[in-house]
Amino acid sequence: MIDKRVKNAEEAIAGIQSGMTLMLGGFGLCGIPENCISALAESNVTDLTCISNNAGVDDFGLGLLLQKKQIRKMISSYVGENAEFERQMLSGELEVELTPQGTLAEKCRAAQAGIPAFYTPAGYGTEVAEGKEVKEFNGKPHILEHAFEADFSIVKAWKGDHAGNLIFKGSARNFNHPMAGAAKITIAEVEELVAPGELDPNQIHIPGIMVQRIFQGQQYEKRIEQRTVRKKEI
Question: Is 0.90 topped by the overall pTM?
Answer without folding.
Answer: yes
